[in-house]
């Protein structure tokens, strides 16, 4: 096979794997924004906390990876509910106060993580044999396929939940017509709490999946967390399909650049990201007016 084609395919596979992580993080940002109109600046820190929680069960307590994964999602979803309770007194004030509130919560989570787990990272072993497969000169890490497969299942399950269950439909109704929902006696605060819980669980899912690839450390909230935020904007902030597309595009861009100039991969990826937004400010999917859930 032509070496250039091999490098391109290799980058695409790696990019889809990392892009799946960014897409999960971006989905959390977008869900909260669609439901509450809020940019949750603590989301990257929640992603990091979710990764740590799963790592504690999997590495420190030697729990099965799948069980540690499920526990991380549940406990991080609970953290999302707590965040909503903390922010609730600010809901009747200007939105900027809630955004500042999420910024403060993020700083608290970051510092608590350093106090509890230390500033150094924790190495997480792969839950499966990750010896690469060679297919026509292309190296494929089995764990990359696990990341893509689990992320796809999570996205499908989320869509089914929002479109086929009473709670999911109630969340969508609450997000679309908040005043009408309040008039009908719907508990909008609970719906917002559920949205933050699901968004946090998505972040924990991304954190658990990426843990064996990177060290789980306090710094991952800025690296993967910010890239996930950028992916949400690239796809169209508040758009759920946009979050998925943005995550995959950002991941592939990053990998393609890394094969040429690895030290500048993130810088150049962000430059391309800015150029795209200059010509299409609403993002790739292009929702100028964000529909609610």
UniProtKB/TrEMBL annotation:
Protein name according to UniProt: Branched-chain amino acid ABC transporter permease
UniProt superkingdom: Bacteria
Transmembrane segments: 6-29, 41-59, 65-83, 95-118, 138-162, 182-209, 229-249, 261-279
Location(s), subcellular: Cell membrane
Entry's family note: Belongs to the binding-protein-dependent transport system permease family. LivHM subfamily.
Keywords linked to the UniProt accession: Amino-acid transport, Cell inner membrane, Cell membrane, Membrane, Transmembrane, Transmembrane helix, Transport
Coiled-coil intervals: none
Annotated membrane topology: Multi-pass membrane protein
